[in-house]
Every structure is written in C-alpha cells, then in structure tokens.
Write a structure and sequence with these properties.
heterodimer; A: about 110 residues; 3-stranded antiparallel beta sheet; 5 helices; elongated; B: two-stranded antiparallel ribbon; about 5% strand
C-alpha cells in the first residue's frame, strides 16, 4: 500500500484483491492497474506483494486460476471461489466496522 | 529483464524453498507484468532503454521479490518443509525394496528350486546365486535408491548435506544387513535368510564396505542432483 502501517494495513491487500476479482476475472497486471484506477491512486500494490498474495490466496482456496495465451504472452487469470466470496463478506464487514469507528472518533474529536 | 533473468529468479525461489509450481508461475507472471510495464512506458513516450529501466524499477529488486514468496508458508514446497526427511527416506526406501525382493524371491522359490533340482554342481550354483542376490540387495539396490533420491533432491533443490546424510545412513544400514539364498540341494522350497548384525571383529572390513558403498552411492547421486538442478526450469 502507499503508506506503510503494518498493523492497520494487514488484511487490506487480501480485501481489495478479492473485491476486484469478485467483479470479474483478471490477471495480475489488471488487478494492479484496476486498484490504482478505482482508488484514484490512493492505493497501490507492489508486484512483490500482489503476486505472492494471489498465489497464497489460491493455495488457501479463495481463488482459482487459469492460464491463457494472449498477444504471445501467457497470462494467469484469477477468479474468486465461493469460499473466497464468503471471506470477502467477512473482511468487508470487518473493514466497515473499523472504518465507521474511525469516522466516529474523528467526528467526535473535531467537535471537542 | 531478460527471460534468462526470470529463469534465474525462479531458480533462486526454488533454492529458498518455494514450490516448483509457484516459482515457475511467479517467473511467468512477473515476466508478463514486466512486458506490460515496458509497453505502458513506451506508450508514455519513453525510449526503449528508459522503458526497460522504469519497468525494472517498478518490478522491484530480485532479493525482495524472492523474500516475499519465500515468506509465504503456503507457497513452500513439501520437500523444503520436510527436508530433514531426506535423512530417513532413502533408508525407508531401501527397507521397502529389500523386503519386496525377499517376498518376490520367496514367491518364486518353489518353481525355481524344482527347475534347478538336477544341476550337476549344486554347491557352485548355490554360491553363485547367493553372490548375485547379495550384490543385488546389498549393493545395487542402495545405489539405485540413492541415485533416485539424488534426482529428487535436484528437482526439489534440496541442500546436498541432507542428501549426503541420508545416503550415509543408508550405506551404514546396507553394510550391517546380510542375506543368504540357497535354492539348490536343500529343501523343496530352498532357504532364504536375511538379517542385520554388527561384529567388532569385522570393524575394518565393515568400515571399508561402508566407505565403498558411500562412494558408490553418493557420487552418482550428487552428480545427478547437480545435473537436475542445473537443468533449465520451463518458464512457459
């Protein structure tokens, strides 16, 4: 992620990757580009984080992959499995709770 | 980055314990990603050299990439996780092959004894059969097992020390084993005996036996491991 804070940021790569792949199947480069685009540059995943994360999520059964030859390049496309969708729901609700909590704290602090 | 660079990246990942499947795919994906970054940079109007440089920088350094993969437990090979198993696995393989050969021999001993009943020099034949089976079970089988594990260790990029330890254990046990086969001139089923033993009066011959067996097994196994390891990993 752009700003480094291990405690706060852990789990976010998994959440955003699952969210992007839940829309449609993509290959690694597409995931990285879509993340920058959708977050308007606020979030970016380095290749050194993205690909190991994709592999690990596939090993845990959250993603499934297939390879396809396009323009002379072999691309590995990933899509979310039903187990991955359940994981995405849990991560999303967890993140919303944290996010709302932080918003409330920020709101309360500004009124003091 | 050239294709060769990604090949070396995959090899380095294998050496750090990343499973072959993941190392191979990582090289493929990173190579594809690099090409996309170069194309993107060229699209921005950069020169070919600048595009290469910016793509290299965006991809990150090889040690960092390798570390990211190696630190993911799910991506490690079973052989790396259980590499200490290479100490015992050749011995277990030898025990299984030894027991299997004894069982096969026991199964075919009756017709074999019947076929050899009327030979003119039963003592000489018995001795020859005994020597052949001793060579097979106490020399040839350990060599074959060791070479097989050498190839496997090469494929899995297992450190030579684990393979060597396993082969030394295998050689010591093979030296302590004995086998006697008598198919001529005895009972209708012949006799097959095997055991394991140690005698201090045979210490020097046993040590020579172990040394010879270690040399016979370790040299081809280490050579094959090296050959397999230096063979190219298919990236596509």
């Amino acid at each position: 992620m752009t700003e480094k804070n291990p405690a706060l940021m852990s789990g976010i790569p998994e959440l955003v990757v699952l969210r992007l792949l839940a829309q449609r199947e993509r290959y690694g480069y597409e995931v990285a580009r879509a993340l920058k685009l959708v977050s308007q540059g606020a979030l970016s995943l380095g290749e050194g984080v993205l690909y190991p994360a994709l592999h690990a999520m596939e090993a845990r059964g959250l993603l499934r992959s297939r390879s396809q030859l396009a323009d002379g390049r072999t691309r590995i496309y990933y899509r979310v499995t039903p187990k991955g969708r359940r994981r995405l729901e849990r991560l999303t609700s967890g993140w919303r709770r944290v996010s709302e909590g932080v918003e409330r704290v920020l709101g309360a602090a500004s009124h003091e | 980055m050239s294709k060769h660079r990604f090949h070396l990246l995959a090899i380095a990942m294998l050496r750090r314990g990343v499973a072959l499947r993941h190392a191979r795919r990582a090289a493929l994906e990173l190579q594809c990603h690099h090409r996309e970054l170069v194309a993107q940079a060229l699209g921005r109007g950069e020169t070919a050299a600048q595009a290469q440089q910016s793509a290299d920088a965006a991809l990150g350094s090889d040690p960092v990439l390798i570390e990211r993969y190696a630190s993911q437990r799910e991506l490690r090979s079973w052989a790396y996780r259980w590499r200490a198993g290479y100490v015992l696995a050749p011995l277990l393989g030898f025990a299984a092959a030894f027991a299997g050969t004894i069982l096969v021999l026991a199964a075919i001993s009756k017709p074999l004894v019947a076929a050899l009943r009327h030979v003119s020099h039963p003592g000489v034949l018995n001795h020859r059969i005994d020597v052949v089976f001793s060579l097979l079970m106490l020399w040839l089988i350990p060599v074959v097992i060791a070479v097989g594990f050498g190839a496997l260790a090469g494929k899995q990029h297992i450190a030579l020390r684990w393979l060597s330890a396993g082969i030394v254990v295998l050689s010591i046990c093979a030296t302590l084993m004995n086998v006697q086969v008598a198919l001529v001139g005895g009972s209708a089923h012949g006799s097959i005996g095997a055991g394991i033993g140690f005698n201090t009066t045979h210490l020097l011959p046993d040590l020579l036996h172990v040394s010879a067996l270690v040399a016979l097994t370790l040299i081809p196994a280490a050579w094959l491991r090296h050959r397999v390891m230096s063979g190219r990993v298919a990236l596509e």
